[in-house]
Specification:
The chain contains six helices and 18 strands. The radius of gyration is 22 Å and the shape is elongated. The chain has 327 residues and is of the alpha+beta class. It folds into two domains: 101 residues, Rieske Iron-sulfur Protein, CATH 2.102.10.10; 202 residues, Naphthalene 1,2-dioxygenase Alpha Subunit, Chain A, domain 1. Strands 11-17-16-15-14-13-12-18 form an eight-stranded antiparallel sheet. Strands 1-10-9-4-3-2 form a six-stranded antiparallel sheet, with no helix packed on it. Strands 5-6-7-8 form a four-stranded antiparallel sheet, with no helix packed on it. Helix content is 19%, strand content 37%. Bound molecules: FE2/S2 (inorganic) cluster and fe (ii) ion. FE2/S2 (inorganic) cluster (FES) binds next to loops.
Length: 327
């Protein structure tokens, strides 16, 4: 498996003067602010294996709370209090760590490229950052974000109207190395609260998945982008998906910031509705007999997302698909 990629793990605001522990692919990692910027180390003192994240940051180094051994941003032990003479060479594993646009990224390798941030990167947009934690898998959580068909049920009233009326919609699925997207056209307007408050006429909707666990949605109107989200998901441990990301809106006079403000609480309601169904599925899947979920005729992206996560080229890259559905 290639390791040379960045994964978004926390908001910059999550790591202040105190260190913070995260789980990174099941491994405990401590994030702290060193003199050289954000640092990430395996969260275990080599001495008696205590969590470094329960210690303090002193002069940009992290101090174990048990006997005070200190480690620098590279994971090298720099002090053993009470020991006279040169400090013997001890070290804890370090991870690559950088901070971009209010989000912290960690890597188990040494990526040369800058991390991918969000779908409107470099454009004049308004962003809000969000964080969430869900009992699920990255595959299920990413599919959930990108799945338009659950919104009629899980988010009735919020993302969809109350009536059962549907529209014929064209869905084009395309992909390439490390990405797949579904573009929806033919849906003039959505009747949910979010759309009525924040959007005009909808011209197209795009749902996209990117390696390693990035799910993004773009809502386009006739004047350009209306709303977008890019969510970076990762499997913190077997049952937990952590996500950080951006909510994005166009900057349009005084209305832009106002809409961006309104988007976040509404988005959080949708998020809690999704968390509930994902938890239900995760809890329920444990009962024997074990079953694989059925991939229904409307689950356009499931196989592509699974392929990308496995480091393979998604089927849509070789064979773009067009579907007609009622949405
Ligand atoms: S356990 Fe960390 S200093 Fe002893
Ligand atoms: Fe949802």
């Amino acid at each position: 498996m290639r390791k040379d990629f960045w994964q978004a793990v926390a908001l910059s605001a999550d790591v202040g003067a105190k260190p913070r522990r995260i789980l990174f692919d099941g491994a405990p990692v401590v994030l702290f602010r060193s003199d050289k910027g954000i640092a990430a180390l395996f969260d275990r003192c080599v001495h008696r294996l205590v969590e470094l994240s329960t210690g303090k940051v002193i002069n940009g180094e992290i101090e174990c709370p048990y006997h005070g051994w200190r480690y620098d941003d590279q994971g090298l032990c720099t002090a053993i209090p009470g020991h006279v003479g040169e400090v013997p060479r001890y070290r804890v594993r370090r991870y690559g760590a950088i901070e971009r646009d209010g989000i912290i990224f960690v890597s188990a390798g040494t990526p040369e490229a800058e991390p991918y941030l969000h779908c409107m990167q470099g454009r004049d947009v308004i962003v809000r950052r969000v964080r969430s934690s869900t009992q699920s898998t990255v595959l299920d959580a990413a599919e959930n974000i990108l799945d338009a068909t659950h919104t009629h049920f899980t988010h009735k009233g919020l993302l969809r109207g109350l009536s059962a009326k549907r529209h014929l919609v064209r869905v084009e699925v395309t992909g390439g190395e490390g990405w797949v997207e579904a573009c929806y056209t033919g849906e003039e307007r959505q009747q949910g609260l979010i759309s009525r408050l924040l959007e005009g006429e909808r011209t197209k909707t795009i749902g996209r998945f990117r390696h390693p666990g990035i799910a993004e949605l773009e809502y386009w109107g006739k004047d350009g982008l209306a709303l977008a989200t890019t969510f970076h998901l990762r499997q913190a441990d077997e049952n937990t998906v952590e996500g950080v990301g951006w909510l994005i809106g166009p900057r349009q006079g005084w209305l832009g910031p106002l809409k961006a403000l309104a988007f976040k609480p509404l988005f959080n309601i949708a998020l809690s509705q999704d968390r509930k169904v994902l938890k239900s599925a995760s809890d329920n899947a444990r009962h024997p007999p074990l079953a694989s979920p059925a991939i229904g005729p409307l689950d356009f992206l499931r196989r592509d997302i699974a392929a990308i996560m496995a480091g393979e080229i998604p089927p849509a890259a070789a064979t773009p698909r067009v579907h007609q559905i009622e949405l």
